[in-house]
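Kindly inspect both lines:
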Amino acid sequence: MTALRLGADRLPERVGELADLLADTVNAGASIGFLAPFERERAAAWWQGRVDAVATGRLAVWVALDGGDRVVGTVSLSFPFPDKPNSRHRAELVKLMVHRDARGCGLGRRLLAVAEEAAAAAGITLLHLDTETGSPAEHLYRTAGWTRAGVIPDYAADPAGVLRPTTLYYKHLDIPAG
């Protein structure tokens, strides 16, 4: 797996592949903010809407490429600053996705590590995220050293429209010496 950070100049080139990944993830049952069925066109529009956030540095996006240069996973970091100057030390991990065809080989864990390492290199000392309680992603975060902060009942609808609880996690990062 090759991990590649997409700038605002490169994100539009990959919107189609990212749309396929997003639609696949939602339609496979992952609760990442959308309801199923989720069409590729809506997924492409959502990704296209992220270009400005990437251009202004409010969002960082990485893709995982298979040996054939196909996008098979992604992860992003969302930064609350410059809107919140008191939050320069933290970021939110968002939209960690692995295509169904690429699951079960540690790709999610590798993408998580890429985001954590990049955050630490950027001076971020605290990451946080939310995930559907009881989801496979929850196991990943626990085993990767994230700390469970609590559960919010009926936080979001899953892709089928059923309200589900969400678990909040955080992780302190060590800044590399340098």
In short: Residues 2-123 form a domain with the Aminopeptidase fold (CATH 3.40.630.30).
